[in-house]
Amino acid sequence: MKSIIDKLVKTRDLTDEEFEQLILCEDKETIEYLAAKAREVREKIYGKDVYLRGLIEFTNYCKNDCLYCGIRRSNKNAERYRLTEEQILNCCEVGYKLGFRTFVLQGGEDAYFSDEVLIPLIKEIKEKYPDCALTLSVGEREKDSYQKLFDAGADRYLLRHETADKEHYESLHPAELSFDHRMQCLWNLKEIGFQVGCGMMIGSPYQTVKHLIKDLRFLQDFKPEMVGIGPFIPHHDTPFADRETGSVDITLKLLSIIRIMLPEVLLPATTALGTADGLGREKGILAGANVVMPNLSPTDVRGKYLLYDNKICTGDEAAECIRCMTLRVQKVGYEVVQKRGDHIRFI
Ligand code: SF4
Fold it and tell me: Are 337 and 302 in contact (CB under 8 A)?
């Protein structure tokens, strides 16, 4: 098996059969060898740096009804909220003082946040914090809307593809959501010039290893600047309430594989990983991740942005989150840094 890993390091590619063997491998020594190679690759490019992204979950209204999501429109038990412009700017102010140099505005697909509302907000954040990067994660929009948000100053865009298999996509989403449109959105974002992040859930309902290999092939083709992956975690008010949580071990192996396959990629150790395993984020960093995304949302709304059950870090103040994260990162031999943390192609 080590020869397969060496081949991956050398060629950044494997056959489907080899990918499958690696994803399913349970031999501890082999998995540690894979993680060690992933760390080697990331350290050559990013050293020991771990970049911070300040996550501002600014609305949990969503017009969509993704079957796995706790804030889907059909969930009548979700307590809805929307931050004001002032609250969002206040989150940025707090975050900037704490050392964040990237803000991520994340929300459901909320019609209130039209281009007319988002554009002045983006401009104001970029004017106030010119040394910071601004990432948007507000779902599917038309190309001209993405272009306007980019022209206003947004630097990056996160839009998980969730699965690169059309049929699988359709089993996770209602009929009105289209796989082709999701993919088109990603290509549009790239063409416009955003640093683009995609990603998938690991262990989502109906997912097979073949689907994961398809995801890897898509990543090779799309070459995103960021890849966000985390284990699927069920939410009790969704049709997938009784499904099992995705495997942390497979998530970690995939983090290592993605790091080796796309050496320059920005790879977060996600909150979902930290929820599925108390040391998940540390393990993620040791598997090749180089980004963490502490929450900057006001504490009184954190418990309402619940895409899945038992989400961690919903009670702590931002200052406490960053202190905790800095220590966790240090404990595994890495360093949280006060930098924008752009993809190497954008520096
Ligand atoms: S996954 Fe995103 S688009 Fe889908 S329902 Fe949840 S917030 Fe809305």
Answer: no
Segment 180-207 shows an average pLDDT of: 98
Q: Is the pLDDT of residue 164 over 80?
A: yes
Say how many Å lie between the CA of residue 139 and the centre of ligand 1.
8
Residue 128 structure tokens: 């106030």
Ligand 1 atom nearest the C-alpha of 71 is: 6
- CA quadruple 169, 174, 175, 179: dihedral, nearest 10: -30
Cα(259)–Cα(253) distance, integer angstroms = 10
At 102, which CATH number?
Answer: 3.20.20.70
The backbone torsions φ and ψ at residue 38, rounded to the nearest 5 degrees and listed phi first, read -65, -40
- What angle separates helix 209-222 from helix 16-24, to the nearest 10 degrees? 120
Cβ atoms of 296 and 91 closer than 8 Å:
yes
Q: Can you tell me the distance from the alpha carbon of 120 to that of 131, in angstroms, rounded to the nearest whole number?
A: 18
Amino acid occupying residue 176:
E
Classify residue 319: in a domain, yes or no: yes
Query: So what's the pLDDT on residue 312?
Result: 86
In a domain, 346, yes or no: no
Q: Sign of the CA dihedral 106, 111, 115, 121?
A: negative
How many distinct structural domains can be found in the chain? 1
**Ligand 1 midpoint to CA 124 (Å):** 26
Q: Which two tokens stand for residue 154?
A: 């947004």
DSSP 175-209: TTS-HHHHHHHHHHHHHHT-EEEE-BEES-TT--H
What range does the domain containing 80 cover?
28-340
- Report yes or no on 123 lying in a domain: yes
232 CA to centre of ligand 1 in angstroms: 14
Whole-number Å distance, alpha carbon 107 to ligand 1 midpoint, is: 8
Residue 50 lies in a domain: yes
Q: Is the pLDDT of residue 315 over 80?
A: no
Q: Report yes or no: 45 and 344 within 8 Å, Cβ to Cβ.
A: yes
- Report which DSSP code applies to 142: -
Stated pTM of the model: 0.97
Pocket of ligand 1 (CB under 6 A): 62, 64, 66, 69, 71-72, 108-109, 139
Q: Identify the residue whose C-alpha is closest to ligand 1 atom 4.
A: 66
